[in-house]
Every structure is written in C-alpha cells, then in structure tokens.
Amino acid sequence: MKFIISGGGTGGHIFPAVAIANELRQRLPDAEILFVGANGRMEMTRVPEAGYKIVGLDITGLQRRLTPKNLLFPVRVFRSVRKAGKLIEEFRPDAVVGVGGYASAPVLLAATSRAIPALIQEQNSYAGLVNKLLAKRVNKICVAYDGMEKFFPKDKLILTGNPVRTEIASGDRAEAIKFFDLDPSKKTILVIGGSLGARTLNLATAAAISRLRDAGIQLLWQTGKLYFPEARQQADQPHNLHALEFIQRMDLAYAAADVVISRAGALSVSELCLTGKASILVPSPNVAEDHQTKNALALVSKGAAVLITDEHAPSRLYDEALRLLADPERQKQLSTRVRELARPNATATIVDELLNLIKK
C-alpha cells in the first residue's frame, strides 16, 4: 500500500503526522509513505530525521494583513495544486492524510478530485482554516475534542484524540535525572514553549532564574532556536538551571519534571494528558481564533490544569509555579484529572479509520 501524509508548519502538525506514519509502518512494514510539506518550513528537516521521505511545495499562507506577498498567493496555490496533482498521479497513493497547515490543501484537493480516499486529522478545539475549507471533500475527519460539529459535517466526525508518541509517557525518572545531570533530591520545572519557543515564557523564565536558584529548584528550559544564545548566558548550569534549544528526549524531560509550564498547543496538551503531569498553561495569543485558550480551557474546566494568560505571565507565572511545587496534594489532584482526559489509542484509531476507507 501507498500513503501520502501532507501538512506541517509547526511541531503540532508534524509530530502527529509522524505518529500516524509510524503506526502505518508498524502494521504494514512494506507500505510506502511519502510526506508533502512546505519548502522552508520545519517539516522539511523534522520528517527526514524521523526516517521518511518528504517533497516540498512552494506555498505560503495568506497573510492576515495587506502585504505584497498576498499578490503571489494565487500563483503559488495554482503551482502547488499542479505539482500535487503530478505527485498523486506518479505515486498513486491508496489514501491521503491531511494534518493541517497550508501544505495539506493542494494535496487534499488533488487527491479528492481523483476520488482517492482522504482523511483529515484536526488537532485543535478550534478548527484550522484549511481543514474547514476541505471538510466537505474528504471522507472522514478525526478530531481531538467534543463539539467539533460546529466546524465539520457531523456524519464525518470521529472522536479519536490526538496522535501522540506513546513512548512519551514511558520515560524512567532515574534515567532522566542522569541524562539531564540533575539532583534527584530537588524538584524540577520543565518549560516548553512549543517547537519554535515562546517569547513570553522565555522572558518570564529568564527573570526568575535567580529566584529558582535561591529556592533550590531545578529547571529544564526549552527555549527555541532564536532565544537560545541569550538563554544559554542567562541560565545557571552549576545550579541545574538548564537552557536547551530543543529537547529530543521529551520522554525523559517529562519523567524528570514535577511541574510543567507550557503553551497550550494541541500536541502539548495531549502529551500532558498522556504523561499525567501537573501543568500551568500559558496560551499563545498569536494564533488563529485564539485556539490555544480554547485548548487550555478544555483542561481547566475539568480541574486538570492551571491557566495563566500571556498578559499576566510576566508577573504571576513563577509565583504560581512555586506555589504548585510546594503543594504535592494539588499536584496529585491535577495529575489524576489530566490523566482521565488522555486518549492513548488515538493513533491506532486513526489508522483503523484510514484502512477502513481503503477497504470500502
């Protein structure tokens, strides 16, 4: 069998796509899997690192403000749809998966116009523009939250949860302490601002370094590429306050953490559910339709996480983090409730749906 998986732009799209590919490869070792992404975006490096071939399209999103780049948008869309059509005809996939992001649109358009089975996987509680536009053309839509019929045809919806690398929850604490060179007797905060980093979290963490050092708290701080040079100078390595550009071994990072401070991207939220970590969520205000706040509220409304707005993070984030670290009972309560929201079989369910489409 042959499959095309399209989309990307952020880790929140890429890592679920890779999880789906890994499940397909495990079930069908002889299957051919081709990724299609956008040139210049992070999928063009992350997907090959995961062991898969990827083809890039010269497509960008439509800017939300007036800009000369928008004049080229129709041309890029036309060229990308034409290239996607050639890929479909040459590769001849049995099914196509779109994971969101503008690179998925040309591929899904080309596939559905040729009656090839197609499935969308929507990670967020507020549907992305591309997925909403293509919903009527695809066969099934796998979602992570209830109430998604306000965006998609109800008869196509399957509530699956988000594909998360299951090994993310299997990290060993003793191995994690050794891997990151931490002190097993001290408490640890993990800060993750998404695959590209988060300015607000980085600035708030930098301002709290001396406070964490004085309190004897350890820190694993994923900064993202842009802020890393500055963060490396601000961190205090002798006191186990570590700044890291990117954390490959997230299983060990979660295992080491007592409390997690995170943006509220769909992937991060799903990982927190699966690992059962007490967390403080700081939704990014710079996303379409404020969907990270909606993701966070899905947990907060059930008493499964703490929410601090981006606006209040500089003044309140580390007050709340230190209070939570000092309250084991509250940590346990958050951990118990967030585990109840986990969907560990999401990837398998999505692949089941994909294979059923082919059979039909």
Describe the protein.
The chain is an alpha/beta fold and 360 residues long. It folds into two domains: 2-162 and 344-359, Glycogen Phosphorylase B (Rossmann fold); 167-339, Rossmann fold (3-Layer(aba) Sandwich), CATH 3.40.50. The chain is 44% helix and 16% strand. It has helices at 11-27, 43-49, 69-91, 104-113, 129-134, 173-179, 199-215, 228-234, 250-256, 266-275, 291-300, 313-325, 328-339, 346-359, and strands at residues 2-6, 32-38, 53-57, 95-98, 118-122, 140-143, 157-159, 188-192, 218-222, 241-244, 259-262, 279-281, 306-307. It has a seven-stranded parallel β-sheet with strand order 3-2-1-4-5-6-7, with helices on both faces. The chain has a six-stranded parallel β-sheet with strand order 10-9-8-11-12-13, with helices on both faces. Helix 10 (266-275) links the parallel strand 11 (259-262) and strand 12 (279-281). Helix 3 (69-91) packs across helix 4 and helix 7 packs across helix 12 (313-325). The longest helix is centred in the N-terminal third of the chain and has 23 residues, at 69-91. The two termini are 15 Å apart.
Strand order of the largest sheet: 3-2-1-4-5-6-7
Report Rg. Answer: 21 Å
Query: Could you tell me the strand content as a percent range?
Result: 15-25%
- How many helical elements? 14
The parts where pLDDT drops under 50 for at least 5 residues are: none
Secondary-structure-based class equals alpha/beta
Task: Output the CATH topology of the largest domain.
Answer: Rossmann fold
CATH superfamily of the largest domain: Glycogen Phosphorylase B
Oligomeric form of this entry? single chain
Domain Glycosyltransferase family 28 N-terminal: 3-142
Function: Cell wall formation. Catalyzes the transfer of a GlcNAc subunit on undecaprenyl-pyrophosphoryl-MurNAc-pentapeptide (lipid intermediate I) to form undecaprenyl-pyrophosphoryl-MurNAc-(pentapeptide)GlcNAc (lipid intermediate II).
GO molecular function: undecaprenyldiphospho-muramoylpentapeptide beta-N-acetylglucosaminyltransferase activity
EC number: 2.4.1.227
